Amino acid sequence: MSAVFFHCSDDKHVILDRIGVAMDLSEARVHAEQLARSFVMTPSAEDWRNWAVHVTDDIGTEIFELPFTAVLGELH
Predict the structure, then answer these.
(1) Is the full-model pTM beyond 0.85?
(2) Which sign does the torsion angle of CA 76, 66, 9, 6 carry?
């Protein structure tokens, strides 16, 4: 199992995952959803609608991208 990395970004900010975690693709999808959810559920003035989790392999190739809007649900 290779390490995967979970970087988060919007147009102005980047949060790099410099550690990574060894897991398979289905686990990576669940982890990305949990990570995005943890950001949007934390009280903050940040508008998370333009953010995304970029899941990459150990050489930096993007495996998939998960927009934070995928875990936001319907906005009221």
Answers:
(1) yes
(2) positive
